[in-house]
Amino acid sequence: MKTEVVIAILLVLAYMIGSVPTSVWVSKWMFGIDIREHGSGNAGATNAFRILGSRAGVGVMIIDMFKGFIAVKLALFTHMLPQSEPFVNLQIFLGLSAVLGHIFPLWADFRGGKGIASLFGMILSIEWGVAVSLVLVFLLMLVITRYVSLSSIAASIAFPLLILSIFSAHAQELSYRLFAIATAFLVVLTHHKNISRLLNGNENKVPLFRKRRMRRE
To answer: Minimal CA–CA distance to 123: which of 77, 69, 175?
Structure first.
């Protein structure tokens, strides 16, 4: 089979993996609701924390991260040399396909989340050292502020800073550096409503270490 055909198949598969609507299924199966009809109306980990509680929120976040992680690993099914520029480029596109699937899920009427957790899983799969650093930034900000949105924004801004400084030796490919910069810009852009609520003091905090009870409707 030609390499181009294999890559096309893998990209479609990555999108389908990303399309698994974790928070939607969890909210329906475990709580009897559609999470998109509550809170911010977003089918992501942030709204899951807010509406379903920390336990369900953590589960949703981990699964959504795994979607991005496994999508990137699909690059191993090609004959490309690992860590080569074409290989890294394919990893980025596979990860982005999964993130696109999360935002516009095939299995949930194309109404998904913002893709932050899947994006993180993608980074973890490509460069675990950067990912661990971003987790520390995210968790520190979350514990201090209890704002998932602000924590996501802080971690996204830290991403290109880490790539261009501490982890520069592991990011020789121009596409990876551009991806890091574009990620920070897009995360801030997609969180413009959250930023507005943060500035106005209207952003909701997540119930850390507290289970949110939901009545079945």
So the answer is: 69
Structure letter (DSSP) for residue 165: T
CA–CA dist 204, 122 (Å, integer): 27
Its pTM stands at: 0.84
Phi, psi torsion values for 147, nearest 5 degrees: -105, 110
Query: How far is 74 from 87, CA to CA, in rounded Å?
Result: 11
Q: Residue 184: which residues within 8 A CB-CB, separation 6 or more?
A: 156, 157, 159, 160
Alpha-carbon distance values, 180 to 77, 126, 211 (Å): 25, 12, 35
Mention every residue, 6+ apart, whose C-beta is less than 8 A from residue 84.
none
- The tens place of each residue's pLDDT in the chain, 217 residues long, gives 788 899 999 999 999 999 999 999 999 999 999 999 998 888 988 789 889 988 899 999 999 999 999 999 999 999 898 878 889 899 999 999 999 999 999 999 999 998 889 999 999 999 888 999 999 999 999 989 988 889 989 999 999 998 888 876 555 678 888 889 998 998 888 888 889 999 998 887 876 655 444 444 4
